[in-house]
Amino acid sequence: MRLAYWMYEGTAHHGVGRIANSMRNVHAVFHAPQGDDYVNAIFAMLDRTPNFPAMTTSVVSGTDLARGTIRLPDTLRQVEERVHPDLIVVVASCSTILLQENLEIAAQHAGLQCDVMVYDANPYRMQEIVAAESLFTDLVKRYAQPQPRTERPTVNILGPASLGFHARHDLISLRRMLKTLGLEINVVAPWGASIADLRRLPAAWLTIAPYRELGLRAATYLEEQFGVPALLDAPIGVQPTLRWIERLRELLAQAGAEIPMPPLTAFSLDGMSAPSAVPWFARTADMDSFSGKPAFVFGDATHVVGITRFLRDELGMPIAGAGTYVKHQADWVREQLTGYVDDLLVTDEFQTVANRIAELRPELVCGTQMERHTARRYDLNCMVISPPTHIENHLLAYRPFLGFDGADVIADEVYTTCTLGMEKHLIDLFGDAGLDLPEKREGVAVAEPAPVAPPVESSKPLAESPVAVAVTSAPAPSQTSPAAVTSAPAPVDPVWAADAEAMLKKVPFFVRGRVRGNVEKYARQRGHAVITAEVLLAAKEELGA
Amino acid sequence: MHSKATPIREDGIYHSFCGLVSVGWLYQKIKDSFFLILGTHTCAHLLQNTLGVMIFARPRFAVSLLEESDLSSSQPDIAAQIEEIKREHHPSVIFLLSSCTPEVMKVEFEGLAASVSTPEVPVLFVPASGLDYTFSQSEDSVLQALIPFCPPAPPDDKRVVFLGSVNDAIADDFSLEAARLGIPVAGFLPASHFTELPPIGPGTVIAPLQPYLHKTATQLRNERGCTVLSSLFPFGPDGTRRFWEDLAAQFGMRVDLSDREAAAWERIKHHTDLLRGKKVFFASDTLMELPLARFLKACGAEVVECSTPYINRRFHAAELAALEGVRLVEQANFHRQLRTIAETKPDLIISNIITTNPLVGQGTVAKWGTEYCFLPIHGWAGVNNLVTSFTRALQRHAQLDPLGSDPIWLTGMMPSSPGGVISLRS
User: Fold this and answer.
1) Rounded to a whole number, what is the distance in Å from the CA of B234 to chain A's nearest CA?
2) CB < 8 Å from B in window 380-409 of A
3) Are B124 and B114 in contact (CB under 8 A)?
4) A486 to chain B: which residues are within 8 Å by CB?
5) pLDDT surpasses 70 at B56
6) Which 3 state secondary structure label does DSSP give B140?
7) pLDDT at residue A402 greater than cutoff 50
8) How far apart are CA A265 and CA B274, in angstroms?
């Protein structure tokens, strides 16, 4: 047992809901307490679904348990009557799975016309990603039929799904590129696919599955079972997109279709410009300062690999660290990021990620909605590059992450999230320059109350404390507790002398928190219990602040 | 005061939130509290998605996460986590909330809470499982858990205690209004701090501010011998007048607030004109449906259906009487509600956060009923907020260019309905 504040992945039944809500005429039925119906709200709110999400909770109440009644057959009949699905996927929840009921028999009891699949997702062993990926793979295995290839070369796109990160936009970007190449699409799934579409999957010449989290296994199955080659790379960034197009043409050539490469300008929105502005943008003088802005990247496997490489290879930013919560993809991520990251963080515990960020104090955090909590706490720049997301990440305009169009979107996001180069020079030269508000509170307090550093300890003058150094430098695997989050900057904080405090006040308010943190870290490492003006100057020199 | 309104009871296949969501406002209300849910990944995911709309640096709620290896032991050990919480948050009280899985595991919660409770930081068991409690109901369980910590009041201490979590501004309004009428106030349950709970005894009059607290009210009546005010809930000019007049009567005062009520109606005339004759359908899940529907009826709207998760005949007696003639449904069936909506074509649907967007997508005007748990709509000061919450939805939709029944504007918005949506109204 552990104390958990936030979760990176949703539950297994949420993963099932994502597949059902992506597909046409597929409905999920949760054999679950009323309380588990909340997943509907995530779809209705974040995806702003204009129709009812394709899932229904067949309520199990305390009274039902006491009486031994099971409402599932009746609910199934109601669902069939109202939405006429081709397939109903039944799944238990974390509490009802403990009842060890035979849902197969209960479902048969309903006597439905449509297909019913009782999906055995143990919520204690699988979460959203594995549940969605396994269900989708099972569906492809169940329905895909051997058949001749389409006459002209066509491709499948597997992976985009309801509540997928910028999934609708990525799909537009992929479609645009395929159209430019003169390729037609056979089936997109699960997004908008029907059971009949799943049957047609083997007719394609190639399957594109850009996400490690969803569609990968189904694409591999189609390759092994039906000989449909699979392109499993994610075209994130300009160079990866160029390589992706090359690979796609190679695989199609091997399948017997020579696809001519159009001029690169054909991939741009107006058909007459560079397909992405990133290569030039990265070389502009404005971007020089980005070589001094370390970034920390955390999220799902696909986006962490894509973004980390993009930041370093295409924007020239240093990588302070990276990590993923998708544990079963950790080996792949580690391999992909060899040479980019030495010490990949693999954890699904929010507090551990927060500790790492507190330790690194990067200029930019690329993370999930949860890293926004952490960045707020430590006053760091943060952009969201991976699910789980906030409603603010579900914007209307075309904002893909994949393809040439995606490269521009990501670069814009990085640029507007960071403190800019010229701005920084002016600040360094003139200090506040009128940007500060007279009553602005200090440092971390700008955003949040300061992390709890017990005042008793901070008032103790602990000179040359080796303990303090040990505590701050050790990532301490046992620090998975919330206590560890707040105490991350160390239980022993150096004290600020008046002269140093006065100097710190001259640092612009919006970087003051970070400077304060860095100087304290420096002081701890050097064993200074009191930060004097001298220590501050030495730290600035050392850290290049 | 028995109502002739006979609620219809259906099978409860409707959309709703888990009772645990009450944590979202209770942790903010009781400022020195911590809410610990003994639950699973599901509970954590629920909280994340319902409360994660805000950016928290330091949430005062968490889940003690049951993982597969914990399922075999019937009595989990939470002592270490309680210590962590104390170290990190220094709460005066920790509420230990149950959830579905430990209920199925038959965890003995009273004993578990007692084993980690200390006189300095009590750990109080709160039944809140989604098997038994729906949205907003678990506030009732939290307040019940606080009852033993309300000091006893002597029989001659005749004062009012307002029941239900309201924000400080509303609490001030009620204190001032009581003072104006000469009604002595002992306090609020819950108070803003655990250490400030009001004394309650046989002389206390409990005045419920929220309609979902009947367990607490009943327990206070049984254990402390206090009187529970039976009146309308203080929403709208009609409800607020009745509430204060009936409360004053408990203190032997005859108060006539008819002028005050008339003035309040007059101030919102522009809005009630808009609501008059409008057909309104309640399909929400907050348990605030009865008083809200009663207010709209008083505004001249036609309430075509008022569905609500549960009705308590005694606690809601006055509201039920005022709703006579309105079709009331408990534990509604959502499929049937959709059919009724298609037949009755309401002008406004008060639904919940799950169904509102899809209902709008079907060509209706719908608004979040969930909001009423957070809006300052109590008393005289809340009248304007209350009425405009209804008229804003109507006016906004009227002001926007009509979508008509052309599904083109919904095309591609939802992968499982790629061609847009067939309107319920067409």
Assistant:
1) 29
2) 388, 390-391
3) no
4) 58, 88
5) no
6) helix
7) yes
8) 57
The CATH number for B298's domain is 3.40.50.1980
Tens-digit pLDDT profile for residues B123-170: 999 999 888 888 888 899 999 999 999 999 999 999 999 999 998 889
Helix (H) / strand (E) element for A119: namely: none
Domain-terminating residue out of B117, B133, B149 = B133
CATH number for the domain whose boundaries are A144-267: 3.40.50.1980
The edge-to-edge listing of strands for the beta sheet with B93-97 is A2-4, B61-65, B33-39, B93-97, B123-126
Q: Where in chain A is the domain with CATH 1.10.8.550?
A: 465-543
DSSP letter (8 states) at residue B378: B
Predicted local distance difference test score (pLDDT) of residue A195:
98
Containing structural domain, residue B37? 19-133
Chain B nearest CA to A443, separation (Å) = 15
Measured on CA atoms in the order A61, A64, A70, A75, is the torsion positive or negative?
A: negative
Q: Note the ipTM here.
A: 0.92
Q: Is A510 exposed, middle or buried (0-12, 13-18, 19+ CB in 10 A)?
A: middle
Is residue A157 within 8 Å of residue A129, measured between CB atoms?
A: no
Assigned token pair, A442: 């200090």
| B146 located within any domain | no
User: pLDDT (tens digit, 9 = 90+) per residue, A255-313?
Assistant: 999 999 999 999 999 999 999 999 999 999 888 888 889 999 999 999 999 999 999 99
Exactly one of A64, A74, A286, A288 is catalytic; which is it? A286
Three-state secondary structure along A344-411?
CEECCCHHHHHHHHHHHCCCEEEECHHHHHHHHHHCCEEEECCCCCCHHHCCCCCCCCCHHHHHHHHH
Model pLDDT for residues A341-390, shown as the tens digit of each residue: 999 999 999 999 999 999 999 999 999 988 998 998 888 999 999 999 88
- CB burial of residue B1 (10 Å; 0-12, 13-18, 19+): exposed
- Using the 8-state DSSP alphabet, how is residue A444 labeled? G
HEC assignment per residue over A124-153: CCCCHHHHHHHHHHHHHHHHCCCCCCCCCC
Contact A95 B131 (CB under 8 A): yes
Give the total residue count for chain A. 545
User: Thinking of the domain A278-427, which architecture would CATH place it in?
Assistant: 3-Layer(aba) Sandwich (3.40)
- How many Cβ atoms from other residues are within 10 Å of residue A405's Cβ? 24
Give contacts of B54 with chain A, Cβ < 8 Å.
Answer: none
Distance from CA of B283 to the nearest CA of A (A): 14
Tell me the two tokens of residue B127. 């039944």
Please give the distance of CA A135 from its chain centroid, rounded to a whole number: 21
| pTM, two decimal places | 0.87
pLDDT of residue A24: 96
List the one residue out of A143, A130, A106 whose CA is nearest residue A23. Answer: A143
**Contact between A1 and B65 using a beta-carbon 8 Å cutoff:** yes
The CA R_g of chain B, rounded to the nearest whole Å, is 22
